[in-house]
Write the structure tokens for this entry.
Amino acid sequence: MAITKTDFMRGMQCEKMLWLDKHKPSLKVIPEEVQKRLDQGNEFGDAAMGMFGPYEEMTVFRPGTQIPDKKAMVEKTKEHLELGTKVICEAAFSDYNNYCAVDILRKTDRGYDMYEVKNSPEVHEQFIKDAAFQYYIVKRNRLEIGKIFIVIHGEDENDPFQPVEVTEEVRKLYPWINENIWRLNRCQKEKEELTVPPGDQCLHPYECWYYGYCHKTKEEDGQEEQLTLL
Ligand code: SF4
């Protein structure tokens, strides 16, 4: 059990959220509108793969499932890097089992530029942190990264993919990722459920999917206990 980009971002919002993801994921309730937004984001991401023309996609699923086979994806990515493939999508990297899949890598004279796709009209701080996690894992795999971009959803629907350069902001966060990634690795492995009092982190930067679980009133707890006893 190691840390992915999603784990990192969720763990930085709240350690307990990360712990629940790993140990009690069935408690999460994803609001319908959030799920819709996530699906739209995936569609935008899929469409963005072709923004530089022909590409190779690294996604590999475990046989008979829609679950990504991360190990196979990392191997496939290595092969394409050795081949010098010009555009690699969902390029997968692992470092001590910490894992990320970069939306798009585009070959340059010296290495690759990195693109993180977001279905949003502007760049948010969270996106920079998101890209910083990926940059950290990719750097530790010794791949030379030149420029880093967030691809946002521009106004022209005929050509909506608008790259915004964030190279310097992302590079600066390397030590911050290093400080926290190993701490979160330890948190998620704790045997006992973490105790974190509800607070601002329950709604910022994103509404937590365990909100109902953590904000249950004592009365609701009591009612549930009674039902279990019946
Ligand atoms: S509801 Fe709040 S305290 Fe509970 S896991 Fe989510 S962010 Fe953490």
Q: What stands out?
A: Residues 14, 16-17, 20, 196, 198, 201-202, 208, 210-211, 214 surround iron/sulfur cluster (CB under 6 Å).
